[in-house]
Amino acid sequence: MKISYNWLKQFIQTDKTPQELSLILTDIGLEVESVETVQPVAGGLEGLVIGHVLSCIQHPNADRLRVTTVDVGGPDVLQIVCGAPNVAQGQKVVVATVGTTVYPNEGEPFKINKSKIRGEVSEGMICAEDEMGLGVSHDGILVLPENTPIGITAKEYFKLGDDHLFEIGLTPNRADAASHLGVARDLAAYFRTELQMPDIAPFKTANENLVIDVKVEDTAACPRYSSLTISGVTVKTSPDWLQDKLKVIGIRPINNIVDITNYVLHDLGQPLHAFDADQIKGGKVLVKKCAEGTSFVTLDGVERKLGADDLMICNAEEPMCIAGVFGGMQSGVGGTTTNIFLESAYFNSVSVRKTSKRHGLKTDASFRFERGTDPDMTVVALKRAALLIRELAGGVISSSVSDIYPEPVKPFDVAVSYPNINKLIGANIPDAEIKAIITALGIDVVSETAEGLDLKVPAYKVDVTRECDITEEVLRIYGYNNIEIPSKINASLSYNTKPDKEQTQHVIADLLTANGFLEIWCNSLTKGAYSKNPEEAVQILNPLSSDLNVMRQGLLMPALESVAYNLNRKITDIKFYEFGKTYHLISEQYVERPRLLIMLSGASLPEQWNHKASPVSFYSLKGAVDAVIGRLGITNYQSEEIKDENFAYGLKYFRGDQTIVSFGAVTAADKKKADIDKEVYYADFDWALLLDIVRKNKIVNKEVSKYPAVRRDLSMLVDADVSFDDLRTIAFKTEKRLIRNVQVFDVYVGDKLPAGKKSYALNFTLQDEEQTLTDKQIDAVMQKIIYNLAQTAKAEIRK
After folding, report:
1. Which of the 8 DSSP states describes residue 490?
2. Mind listing the pLDDT tens digit for each residue in 632-677?
3. I need a labelling partner for 391 at 20 to 30 A (CA). Which of 102, 164, 511, 545 fits?
4. Confidence of residue 288 (pLDDT cuts 50, 70, 90)
5. Is the pLDDT of residue 553 over 90?
């Protein structure tokens, strides 16, 4: 938000420099991101001086050029070639001397150099209005009054003073500060001084010759609607002072009527809209919602289809303006307008935000209405604008103020306790100081006790509704920097539940990062179309768009969008992980579930001179899953093949009826939703269950065995539906004490085997912690394993 230093000083007298004021504003919660010196006119007219045309003769080599001599108050008279048709001897003019950079209204700035034009020397330029940025006229040079002194700078003559522009990073909760008045209110509270409000006492209705009937059909979307009419106005260019005010804050002047509404908006924070009263058909203004799909052409010439929830300002036949957002093409003020209908309303912030988002329209008015304007400012701003219009555009106020306000917005009732304020702030601020700050902020004290205050907070402070909000207001003005850091720090021993959730997450994040994975954070809001259990979907009441209308039920689809985003930018090797939550509505209860997602696609190893790129596979993912499980010290779990709609194929690790992790290939249907045509693998961990298992794990330290381990291999023929996990489980059930590990090192399925059969080759690692195993002991264990494999899995040992 842009705030002018000179404009601020209309509300509050201060001798603080712009730099000092910027520090104060930041301290009281209005962070100043930058301060820059600005001029209302580009370049500030630097290098331009007032000159006197001593002579003017025809150029000997060009019919449309004149050769002049100009006295600019220096030791030498300048010869300047000029092409303006109105240049003449004796004129007082503005001259850009050699070395000056000129900033015209249109085109790029250019530097004045000494040059020859058709053979005649030219030592400067006599300027037109638009060449200096002072106006739009290019009919000829700007001729000044005869009594204008020569040699003075143009900046001095036109009384152009520098201004300073504050760029304030306005937070969403500070809607009350979205104007020069709002910022000045905080400064007045800080300095304990009075605001100098604009004088609207001269406002007076001249007659009732132009009364337009107003009806508000939707008072929920428009709680207050104030208006009046002004007849006999002349639409023209605004005076310099008004144009300069707007230019400093980056607003392009249009005409006096529109400029006044923009000025009052940034002055008082109240958006206004001026209609051409003669274009209001039927002499009526209706504030209502139109039928779904109604066509409406906005001021930018775009035809839009209205939604059923869009609040509109209509005449008796058609809509004229999108309330609080954007005007219409036909009803606005133009060069031929003589009568205007002036609107100043208080619109519901949610209604304006929805409409603004739906149509993709962001305006200064919608910015303020979305955050909440002051319902008590509508009539004040209306009268302020009417007085300015009467002054700058002529005309008379031709109706009384129409103020439709059926249910006035009440101030917020808040009770505060002095001890609670001091406790929350962490300082002992005197009660009188707290009360003084509160009253300086414009908050009324209804009653006072020794313990605290009962307050009425003005409606424009939309975010100050609780005791903690009042505390924040007090702290802002008292000063964060005035809170001393105590010299003594108190600490107490605390017991933390094991495991430490954050530390455990950091351990796994470090593991994955060290293995080349990148952490992603995806939006918790996603498309309702992604929900595989719509009955459990957590719907957003006021969605920003149809793509963000539910809370995610899984981490997969948002992560796939990230994959698609990278693939579309030629980043084909994907290794992602995300810690996040999923959201569900189960039995009318909202449930959050922490999850961990791992995702792979592309190549596991990039192409090098000595080997080709190695594509990721299911086993690349399994390696990452096993690494996470192993790092957490989880060993006791079962596995089985997944057969559901969430995976094309895959496995899950589980304990009893609790699934620790499911992992495998993304289905074609899910890839199609994200517009991905490459193979993608992912793993979905139940992070809450993992933490619970880790909590129950016992860490046991033991020495490395000094007795050797031995390995034995078995090759066997089994049924095709027998898995390695089945065989491993049988082995460990056979001998728990001596078997350290079971691994598969070969699998064969082919036409050389009987139908429905496959061949497994397993190795078994055996070790005793207390002695060296003998061949007799090893053979006995292996015979038991062979027997149990044959009995349980019908395995045929191959010799």
Report:
1. -
2. 999 888 888 898 889 999 999 999 899 999 999 999 999 999 999 9
3. 164
4. very high
5. yes
Which is nearest to 348 in space by CA: 315, 384, 320, 310?
310
517: tokens are 């994975």
- Supply 88's token pair: 């003449």
Q: What DSSP string runs through 403-443?
A: EE-SSPPPPEEEEEEHHHHHHHHTS---HHHHHHHHHHTT-
48 within 8 A of 497, measured Cβ to Cβ: no
Q: What confidence score (pLDDT) does residue 457 get?
A: 95
For 464, how many CA atoms within 13 A lie in the half-sphere containing its CB? 27
Distance CA 166, CA 159 (A): 22
Average pLDDT over residues 687-705: 87
Starting at the earlier edge strand, list the strands of the sheet with 311-314.
213-216, 284-289, 311-314, 319-322, 326-327
Report residue 757 as tokens: 């059969």
pLDDT, averaged across the chain: 92
Q: Report how far residue 202's alpha carbon sits from residue 694's, in angstroms, rounded to the nearest whole number.
A: 77
Q: Specify the amino acid at residue 221.
A: A
Question: Would you say residue 229 has pLDDT above 80?
Answer: yes
d(CA 751, CA 432) in angstroms, rounded, equals: 95
> Is pLDDT of 454 > 90?
yes
Give the CA angle between residues 310, 312, 315 to the nearest 5°. Answer: 155
Question: Are the C-beta atoms of residues 358 and 283 closer than 8 Å to each other?
Answer: no
Using CA atoms, how far apart are residues 421 and 356, in angstroms rounded to an integer?
A: 38
> Per-residue b/e over 69-83, b at no fewer than 16 CB within 10 Å?
bbbbeeeebbbbbbe
> Please, what is the Cα angle at 624 between 623 and 626, to 5 degrees?
65
d(CA 348, CA 765): 73
pLDDT value at residue 105: 81
Measure the N-to-C terminal CA separation of the chain; round to a whole number of Å.
83
Residue position matching structure tokens 């195993």: 773
